[in-house]
């Protein structure tokens, strides 16, 4: 259960990081 939660958290974090990078690239 905890490993699944951590996996989802990591996936969510990576998705947020990717969106942040994309937004920075598009706004500059």
Tell me the β content.
under 5%
Structural class: mainly alpha
Q: Count of helices?
A: 1
Poorly predicted runs:
none
Shape summary: rod-shaped
Q: Using the CA coordinates, give the radius of gyration.
A: 12 Å
Structure description:
By secondary structure, the chain is an all-alpha fold. The chain has one helix and no strands. The longest helix has 26 residues, at 2-27. The radius of gyration is 12 Å and the shape is rod-shaped. The chain starts with a helix and ends with a helix. The mean pLDDT is 88.
Give structural attributes.
28 residues, mainly alpha
Question: Nutshell version of this structure?
Answer:
The chain is an all-alpha fold.
Topology (elements, then pairings):
Elements: H1 2-27
